[in-house]
Amino acid sequence: MLTFLALTSVALLGIVPEQSQAIAIYTGWERHALVGSDIRLSCSFFSWRWTSEDVTFSWTYRPDGSRDSISIFHYTGGAAYVDNKGPFRDRLEFVGNPGRRDGSILLKNLELNDNGTFTCDAKNPPDIVGRPSSVRLLVFEKVPIQAGVITGAIIGVVLGLLVLIVVIYYLMRFLVARRVFSLSVSKHGKKKKEGSQQRQGPVPPADPSKIKV
Amino acid sequence: MRLILLGVLILHVIILILLIVSTAASAWSVADNSAKDLWYKCSTNNGGYRCQPSSNEDWIQAVQALMILSVLFCFFSLIAFLYQLFRLVKGGRFFFTAIFQILASVFVMCGAIIYTVMRPDDGTHTNFGYAYVLAWVAFPLCLISGLIYIVLRKKE
């Protein structure tokens, strides 16, 4: 009896840790925005369980060059608590849908001081073991042109025009040839009816400049 | 006739090589120990040789695009020349080759002009590098080669 109990408890201890599995949190990697604009930082998670009612989302912010992070948002028990004392007071809004595992926040009226790392941590009890995910926010005064965009655009347009011109050229030649061909067929038919002895063939182009490639 | 064709072909290949070197080498501006544009900014400090990507301004991207287009068009004209050499009717002119070659020369000219005008005057990097000189050398050669193709006629 005792050994049976011991074996069962060992087996249960072996099974129980598997009941709380890891949760995977997804945010973006890096976000770029202009000064004065709004940006939506998205956060969602993957968990094997149904979304529980005790699901929590929390966002923390660490400015560039600082080592401390402060908490700016927390959602728990069905209510969202936004920052009302920190750098984002009156600029933060919760736009997520916890029922759909979306814990996104909206930052309004960005300033240059808002550069930093935003970390989202989500918990779906009993799945609480997970690594918080971070997204870096870069605020620009003027959005820099990415390398190669203009280069690619110019090359693409010129090559596209080249292909278009070649296609149009061959199309025109083809259409003209067709009209010439149909004309010679009708002439050929008429002449045959009249019983002419002249040899009719396709119109030979006498001008060498007409023959291209 | 064969000698002329060979000479024209060699000139074309030389122009293509000049254009490729000018486009690929990042040495349009040089300073004491560094060279930059079109693709990288490389400098030799006492610590070693370091390179970083050059600035993404719109005019540099335009020069990059024009140089790449000139290399492509010169290459297309070489292919067109070889093709027309064997397929052109007697007495015909190498029009396609000439058009592509002249377009390539126009692109090199535009790229070199844009670079000359828009280069920032900040004290360092005041000298023009060898890649810039090669671009200006390739432009008249390319134009002359294009004009030769207009004048050239296929005989016998």
UniProtKB/TrEMBL annotation, chain A:
List, alphabetically, the GO terms of the cellular component aspect.
plasma membrane
Q: What is its main location?
A: membrane
Keywords per UniProt:
Disulfide bond, Glycoprotein, Immunoglobulin domain, Membrane, Signal, Transmembrane, Transmembrane helix
* GO BP term, example: myelination
Q: Where is the signal peptide?
A: 1-22
Transmembrane feature ranges: 145-171
InterPro entries, per the entry: Ig-like_dom, Ig-like_dom_sf, Ig-like_fold, Ig_sub, Ig_V-set, Myelin_P0-rel
- Which segments carry the region annotation Disordered? 188-213
Q: What subcellular locations does the record give?
A: Membrane
> What is the membrane topology listed in the Swiss-Prot or TrEMBL record?
Single-pass type I membrane protein
Give all residue intervals belonging to the Ig-like domain: 17-136
As for family, the record states:
Belongs to the myelin P0 protein family.
Which PANTHER family does the entry link to?
MYELIN P0 RELATED, MYELIN PROTEIN P0
User: What protein is this chain from?
Assistant: Myelin protein zero
UniProtKB/TrEMBL annotation, chain B:
Q: Looking at the keywords, is Transcription present?
A: no
By sequence similarity, the record places it as follows: Belongs to the PMP-22/EMP/MP20 family.
Entry membrane topology: Multi-pass membrane protein
| Protein name as annotated | Peripheral myelin protein 22a
- Show which residues constitute the signal peptide: 1-27
Transmembrane portions of the chain: 62-83, 95-118, 130-152
Q: Which UniProt keywords apply?
A: Membrane, Signal, Transmembrane, Transmembrane helix
Entry's Pfam families?
Answer: PMP22_Claudin
Primary location group: membrane
Which cellular compartments is it found in?
Answer: Membrane
Pull one GO CC term from this UniProt entry: plasma membrane
Task: Provide the species name.
Answer: Haplochromis burtoni (Burton's mouthbrooder)
Asked whether the UniProt record includes Metal-binding among its keywords, one would answer no
Q: Which domain of life is it from?
A: Eukaryota
